[in-house]
Amino acid sequence: MIKKGIAIGVLTVISLGYSIIPTRGDAVTYPVVDTGQEVCYNASGEIACPVAGEAFYGQDAQRDGNQPSYTLSADSLTVYDNVTGLTWMASPDGNLDGTLESPGDKFSWSDAMDFPATLNAQSYGGYDDWRLPSIKELYSLIDFSGLDPSGPNPTNLVPFIDTDYYEFVYGDESQGERIIDSQYWTTTEYVWTTMHGDHTVFGVNFADGRIKGYGTYNPMGGYKLNFALCVRGNIDYGMNDFTDNGDGTVTDAATGLMWQQDDSGVGMQWQDALAYAESLSLAGHDDWRLPNAKELQSVVDYTRSPDYSGSAAIDPVFSCTGNTNETLATDYPWYWTGTTHANLSPTPGGAAAYVCFGRGMGYMSGSWVDAHGAGCQRSDPKDGELSDYSYAPYGYYFGDAPQGDAIRLFNYVRCVRDAGSDSGVGDRDIRQGRLESHPNPFKLETTISFSLPRDEIVRLTIYNVLGEEVTTMADGCLQAGEHRYCWQAADLPSGLYFCFLEAGRSSATKKLTYLP
User: Residues 202, 316: contact at Cβ < 8 Å?
Assistant: First the structure.
């Protein structure tokens, strides 16, 4: 029997004939879109997702947030983000000739700032209120199912943006570009300078999965050229609304997230950061987690920097432990996320994303500089020894990236939780009941698993993209413990499916990709 428009807990499935859109009753103006990371990693490669108490439990792929959901316009010119309420150009086709080319469709920053006027003059896509996005708006599109091209033979490339909806192209090596030269401009200027005094603007690189501050002009290389992907709608997106709760926590009403007001006070490696978050009990809550990359970036205050405001790039309602950077100057830490920055090297899971709340240090031309700005997002090895990397003055180390990104290995932690959830054990139980699937994407079959902290009435159902029920795998009372179901899709068309779990009063959803 085919069922459509089925309400599952607080999540409603709306059948539109081409997609299903999860909608929630959250009254937030700045909903943080999930990263899209669905694969679990240890400190080197992919693993089956761990359960509570096991090493590497609590990482990004084990947390279901606001799942990405888009609607492509009938003329394919625009994409509506069903989560954020933002409408985007579907292609950064800068000269509007219908063909995306690099570098042919790129702009200098000043020209990118003028580009929305061109779109508005011709009512591009039927709208005349286009703007260049802020860094928080643009970062909402990043998809961490992508793969950093780092590695000896970069083939089978996967960009950090959903190419089912957004047109994308890598840098053109035949034109003297690097593969990773697919950076996009924003309106967010760094409130200081980078490199060697360069005027700097933040942007997102959808080829390698990073936020960096880009110097707009280099006397040796001229104007920096990046793509411009314009946006419209939800003018409040990216604006925080913090409240000091007076108990060591801060709530952001705009995102619906609650934050640890202080940080960990010490640096630690990634596995220990996950364990720290899982063990944290604060203000009567024990459902804290290591934030994913988008959650952590949501609290960056881009109006602040160590050189401009004498503070970390975060609202002063938070406290940041001071440290000393690679130039021996007073600075502020980098903070781990639960998001693996997967790549094409022999250790594809060896690095995790971090966000800089102090200077984004790099070693260039024989000296340490603020290479990418406070507020950038890069990645660090999850473990290892500093002696594995190049040495610079004062006993600090750097990687082989063009800007010689500093290697620290031991970064700080600021934990997060969902502000609207109940406190205590109940929320931890809900997290443990969330869905996992391995492998995903899959061919022919995948194992779907979840754990129950207590006996529950459970319904586990698979839907296709039309909102039609494909199969029910469980429907009844299940005992506490781990449950696994093998779903075989051999008789079904390849494509996207959705697995829904109802367990008592909690619910969860998992996107499944069936490959031909």
Answer: no
DSSP character at residue 253: T
CB within 8 Å of 78: residues ≥ 6 apart: 72, 87, 88, 89, 90, 125, 126, 127
Beta bridge partners of 472: 461
CB 300 within 8 Å of CB 314: yes
The pair of structure tokens assigned to 256 is: 């619906």
Quote the mean pLDDT of the chain: 89
Give the mean pLDDT of 387-401: 91
Tell whether omega for the bond before 402 is within 30 degrees of 0, i.e. cis. Answer: no
Residue 16 pLDDT greater than 70, yes or no: no
Both tokens of 66, joined, read 């606001």
For residue 440, what pLDDT is reported?
84
Amino acid sitting at position 332? Y
Tokens of 343: 């790549």
Task: Say which residue the tokens 């059948």 belong to.
Answer: 15
Q: Tell me the mean pLDDT in the region 84-99.
A: 97
Locate 454 and state its tokens.
């207590």
Residues 6 or more apart in contact with residue 475 via CB below 8 angstroms? 458, 459, 460
- State residue 310 phi and psi, 5-degree precision: 65, 30
The Cα–Cα gap between 347 and 337 comes to 19
CA distances (Å), 418 to each of 59, 287, 421, 427, in order? 15, 8, 6, 9
Continuous H helices in 280-331:
293-297, 306-309
Whole-model pTM? 0.79
Is pLDDT above 90 for 516? no
Q: State how far the Cα of 110 lies from the Cα of 122, in Å rounded to an integer.
A: 20
In this prediction, residue 27 carries a pLDDT of: 66
Q: How confident is the model at residue 175 (pLDDT cuts 50, 70, 90)?
A: very high
User: For 143-170, how does the pLDDT look when each residue is reduced to its tens digit (9 = 90+)?
Assistant: 999 999 976 667 789 999 999 999 999 9
Retrieve residue 506's tokens: 């909690």
Which tokens is 69 given?
């959901």
Report whether pLDDT(433) > 90: no
Nearest-angstrom CA–CA distance, 220 and 189 = 21
